[in-house]
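SAMPLE LOG
Freezer: B-3
Tube label: C17
Construct: single chain, 274 aa
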Amino acid sequence: MKKPQGGVNPAKLTAWVRKFSVYRRPPSRQDIQAWLGLFKYEDQTIAIRILDNLLLVSETNIQTGYRSALQGMEGWHGNARQRTGRWYFCGYAKDTHESGQTMLRMFAEANRLQQESHRSMFVSPRELPQLKLTAEDTLIFVDDVSGSGNQVVHYWPTMLELIASEARAFLVLTAVTQTALAAINANTELEVVAQYVIDHSGNVFHDDCKFLTAAEKKKLLAYCQMADAKNPQGYGNCGLLLVLSHKTPNNTIPVIYCHHDGWQGIFPRHLPLD
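STRUCTURE (predicted):
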């Protein structure tokens, strides 16, 4: 019979519940204890440190970042008459079901651009050619996280063809890794503006991550393989400990978000049916 969780006192559980309350379905004390119970007793200190080092970004913080990004851009002004050129906002996604569209709504709310008078500024990728953008115009793509940079780089040739001009193009993100930032800078003409820039220490399996030993990382990887054998270090081997209030990125380690018969993560990407 498995021993009860060690090293987790009521005060720590309470602190976690408070910290995680901004998630769309916050884990309860019981949920957290059940998740810890998926780890062997002697490995639960690893799980505890994972939760202690988890970055959970609330919707309020996401919107604060989006507001700061736009307000800091040269040529932007709340008064249309004082702006330089035309400004358009677009989700960085191939269709309306991807994260870019969700984040675009948050971006509009953060910058108080929800009125009917601003609606024409928000466009889809397929509408870009008809805008006939020029070098005087600014196009801001919006998304949540870029962990590997693969998706941004993959879509860029299509986006560039749709833009068909020398318009300034930005990509506003909540978080980007240094790896993704380097890939985007090398392979696109996008200027990235992100609230959080995550260095190699943010990859739990990287040597620069110091809160786990090499032996503990090896043990953690075994649990991640139980959660997702195909991407045990998260998509792109990013190894992130990042959760957004509306969804957990797939660059995050799978023990956090995978939810199936063999593993029940506390921040599932797809909420289980009740």
